[in-house]
């Protein structure tokens, strides 16, 4: 009895450990849809976070440039006291504050505020661009996973054909070559599976890097992908005017122009007010007001006589403004060109999908008929395998164009600024 109890206990213990390991392993495995992964990436991606911190820094700069310069407090001690009628001067304390020309702080604040708005749009653009970057890894992984599943199903089907061929060969109804043909195709599919698995490893590493996960993190892609059939409408240049990238460049140009106004205000005189307090000791001879400290208000003015630096600064800001305007126009041109290319890709892929779906449907019918013919008459086994292989080829092509479609769709969404709606649902 004891050996049985011990054996059962060990068996139960092993089951418990296996279940525990399964639970632990499942914790490190992610299984989400593409949009769910995208939301996670928005929170984790270092590039997006960096753009947000740059926006925060730009906001703080608005507060910085709106502030007055720090007041100056100085203290001086007379090593050799200066003798005056009321006594020797021992020390002097000075406090002063400079004020820029009227409107200078506002002009600098306006320029900084516009630059902060531009930086926020750069952050928005990084979020939108992340959608496209993620798609470049996600959908090829989906394609490879589905290809591997197809090949595994193909191997199972070929093995079933092989069993039928072996039985017919043993009964003398078919030649041995029918059995050997299935072995060749099985070996081919097994090799292709290994190649696909090796091909998938760098894609998964790239996906993990975007998600800011350890490179060996295990995750699963969705088992289904939805292909929308919405027509892509024609657009004009103005379609892109509100895109975050275009608006960002537009605001950066405006910030440079606002900076010119701030530089012009800085080139005007600044004003300062201050107060000197002089500590005076008692006079050696009794006099009126002996030892009375001295209080002296002061007013100062800065003289911006070296105008060359201000002229250079304005020229620099003007050149940057022109640069941003040209970059904006080039971005619009690039977006328009890329839009039409993505639109063409979507149209091409839709045509291919329609064709492949029809071909797959016909081949399945042909395969069913050919299988019945071989099962009944033991003829045309080679044709059966050919149809099976052709069906597999079209199913693989279908997966490839689905991947191309989803990547082109993500690119189109980026150019039209559509994918941020998905992130904020």
TrEMBL record:
Which keywords, in A-to-Z order, does the entry hold? Cell outer membrane, Coiled coil, Membrane, Transmembrane, Transmembrane beta strand, Transport
- Print the organism lineage: Bacteria, Pseudomonadati, Bacteroidota, Cytophagia, Cytophagales
Cellular compartment(s): Cell outer membrane
List the PANTHER family: OUTER MEMBRANE PROTEIN TOLC
A Pfam match: OEP
UniProt keyword Membrane, yes or no: yes
Q: What's a single GO MF annotation on this record?
A: porin activity
Among SUPFAM superfamilies, the record links this protein to: Outer membrane efflux proteins (OEP)
Q: What is this protein called?
A: TolC family protein
Where exactly are the transmembrane stretches of this chain? none
Q: Which residues form a coiled coil?
A: 310-366
GO cellular component assignments: cell outer membrane; efflux pump complex
Q: Which family does it belong to?
A: Belongs to the outer membrane factor (OMF) (TC 1.B.17) family.
Keyword field contains Zinc-finger = no
